[in-house]
Amino acid sequence: MNILEKINLQITTFSKSERKVAEVIIDNPEQAIHSSIATLAKIADVSEPTVNRFCRRLDTKGFPDFKLHLAQGLANGTPYVNRHVDESDGPEEYTAKIFESTMASLNSARKSIDISQVNRAVDILTQAKKISFFGLGASASVAQDALNKFFRFNVPVNCFEDIVMQRMNCMNSSEGDVVMLFSHTGRTKQLVEIAEIARQNDATVIGVTSKDSPLAKECNICLSPDVPEDTDLYMPMASRIAQLVIIDVLATGFTLRRGPKFRDNLKKVKDSLRPSRFDKRD
Amino acid sequence: MNILEKINLQITTFSKSERKVAEVIIDNPEQAIHSSIATLAKIADVSEPTVNRFCRRLDTKGFPDFKLHLAQGLANGTPYVNRHVDESDGPEEYTAKIFESTMASLNSARKSIDISQVNRAVDILTQAKKISFFGLGASASVAQDALNKFFRFNVPVNCFEDIVMQRMNCMNSSEGDVVMLFSHTGRTKQLVEIAEIARQNDATVIGVTSKDSPLAKECNICLSPDVPEDTDLYMPMASRIAQLVIIDVLATGFTLRRGPKFRDNLKKVKDSLRPSRFDKRD
DNA sequence: CAGTTTATTGTAATTAAACTACATAGGTCT
DNA sequence: AGACCTATGTAGTTTAATTACAATAAACTG
C-alpha cells in the first residue's frame, strides 16, 4: 500500500507530535524526501527522535527507509489518495485519475496473470488451423483489435459482431480451430453458449474473462486478469485495456514462437503500407 | 526519465569500476536501495567513493539521493531496464515487458497530454449534433471502441471502417458535427483527406494522433499523447492503448459535464443488459 | 485533590553513514 | 621511457541517524 495512504489511515492513532510530523509530510511529501531528519523535525516543530518514532510506527526501519517508501509512493504519481473520479473533478483531475487507475489495473493484471496459461494459449494459437475472435458490446472492439493483430500473421482469422454469425462459425468448427472469447464479466449468456457450441465441435476455446465465471468454466484455457476495481461510469474501462494488453502479449508470444523468418514477413506487411503514407519529412 | 534506463544508457561512458557498480545495481536494484554505500561498495568490489562518484555522474546529489531516485524508478514496477522484447525471452519475460512498457507509455502519455485540449474536446463533444469516429487499420478498433462508449450517451454517433463511407459521411457533414480521427502516425493519406473534407464542410475535427503530423495540422483540436517508443513487433501497441485511455478520459469528461441526471440514464442502459446475463450467484 | 503511574517528548551521547581531500596505481601519449 | 592524466582507493572529517535516558505532561487511583 502507498505509504501516504497509510499515514492518512493511521493518523488518528498518532500522538500530538507525531501528527504534526504526519501533517508536514502529507502537506509536502516532496520536501520531506529531500530533507534530513533534523530539518524535517524543525519544520514540524518537534524533536528528531519524534520523527524517527513516527517512521517506525509506519513499519519502516527508520527515517531513511521511510523516505524510500515515500519516494516510491510519489513515483507512481499518485498524490490522489482516492483514485475514483468524483463530481467535482476538473479536467486535470479526472484525466490524471483515469490514467492512474488504468495503470494500476494493468499492474495488478500483470501480477495476477497465469504465465503457464499464457504459454499454453500461445501454443494453441501457433498451431491453430483457424482463429475466431468474438466479443459482444464493449468487448467487440477488443475482438476486432485481436483480429487486426493476428491477421498480419498470415493465419486464417475471423471476427463477427453478429451473434448469429458467431454461432454459425462455431457450429462449423472442427479440431484445430481456436475460438477466442472476450468478456469482462464472463456472464453474458450468449457468449457462454458460443463457448459450449465451439467445444462440442472440438474447437479449442480460449477465454479472456474473469475468474470462476460461467464463461471461464466453459473454456479450455482461461486468462483472467485480476482488475480490482473499475473506474467505470457504468462501463468497463480498465479491464478492457487489460484484455488488449493480453492480446499484445499473445501476439508477441506468437511471433517469438514463429522465429526470425516470420518476423521478416511482418516487416514486409508493414512496408507494404508505406505508399499510403505521407513521408516523414513532410 | 527512469534512472535505471539512464544507467543503461550511460553505461558505456562509465569507467571500469563504475561499471561494476552499475551492473550490481541493475542486477538487483531492490538490494541496492536497502544497502548502505559501504555494503554496496563491498558487493561491487569497489571503494565507497567510487560508488559516490557513480551517483554523482548520474546527476544526483549523492548516494542517498540516488537511492531515492532508484526507489522511484522501482515503484513504477520497471525492473526491466530494457523493455524491448527480445528473441530469448520466455513467456514470463515478454509478458512482464509488454505490461510494463504499456504502463510506461501511459505514464508518459499522461504527462504529455494537454489538459486544455482535453477540456476543449469535451466542450465540443457535449455540444455535438453528431459524432463520427474513424480510424484505419489498427486504429479502426479504437474508433469502434469510441463508438461503443459514446453510443451509450444517447448521442447520434457512427463509425465506418470503409474509407468510402467515411468520405461520404464527411461530405454530408455540417456545422455542429464532430469528426474524431484516430491515427498513430498521423501520416495516413486517406485519413488526412477525410479531415480536409470534414473541415471544408464545417465539421469540427478532433484528432488523436502524433504531434506536428500532417493529420494534426488538419485538426481543430488535437490530442497528442507522447508515447516515446513502441514495443511493437512492427505494429503500434502501446500508443493505441494510450488512445483508448484518452477515449475513456473524454467519455468521463462528457458524463461529468452532463451532470447527475445523465448518469442515472447511463445506469438504466447498464441495467437493461441484466436479462442477458447469468446471475452473480451462478 | 495529592500521589503515583504511564505515556509522550526532548536532550545529549553514541554510532553509523556519507563525503572530502589526498595519495597512489594504472594507463596513455609523446 | 618518462611525464601526464585518469581512475581508484585510503584515511580522515563531517553530517546524519539512532539510542539511552531524563523530564515533562497527562491520566488514573486512593
UniProtKB/TrEMBL annotation, chains A, B:
<dbReference type="GO" id="GO:0097367">
    <property type="term" value="F:carbohydrate derivative binding"/>
</dbReference>
<dbReference type="Pfam" id="PF01418">
    <property type="entry name" value="HTH_6"/>
</dbReference>
<protein>
    <submittedName>
        <fullName>Transcriptional regulator HexR</fullName>
    </submittedName>
</protein>
<feature type="domain" description="SIS">
    <location>
        <begin position="121"/>
        <end position="260"/>
    </location>
</feature>
<keyword id="KW-0804">Transcription</keyword>
<dbReference type="GO" id="GO:1901135">
    <property type="term" value="P:carbohydrate derivative metabolic process"/>
</dbReference>
<dbReference type="InterPro" id="IPR036388">
    <property type="entry name" value="WH-like_DNA-bd_sf"/>
</dbReference>
<dbReference type="InterPro" id="IPR000281">
    <property type="entry name" value="HTH_RpiR"/>
</dbReference>
<dbReference type="InterPro" id="IPR009057">
    <property type="entry name" value="Homeodomain-like_sf"/>
</dbReference>
<keyword id="KW-0238">DNA-binding</keyword>
<feature type="domain" description="HTH rpiR-type">
    <location>
        <begin position="1"/>
        <end position="77"/>
    </location>
</feature>
<dbReference type="GO" id="GO:0003700">
    <property type="term" value="F:DNA-binding transcription factor activity"/>
</dbReference>
<dbReference type="InterPro" id="IPR035472">
    <property type="entry name" value="RpiR-like_SIS"/>
</dbReference>
<dbReference type="InterPro" id="IPR001347">
    <property type="entry name" value="SIS_dom"/>
</dbReference>
<dbReference type="GO" id="GO:0003677">
    <property type="term" value="F:DNA binding"/>
</dbReference>
<dbReference type="InterPro" id="IPR047640">
    <property type="entry name" value="RpiR-like"/>
</dbReference>
<dbReference type="InterPro" id="IPR046348">
    <property type="entry name" value="SIS_dom_sf"/>
</dbReference>
<dbReference type="Pfam" id="PF01380">
    <property type="entry name" value="SIS"/>
</dbReference>
<keyword id="KW-0805">Transcription regulation</keyword>
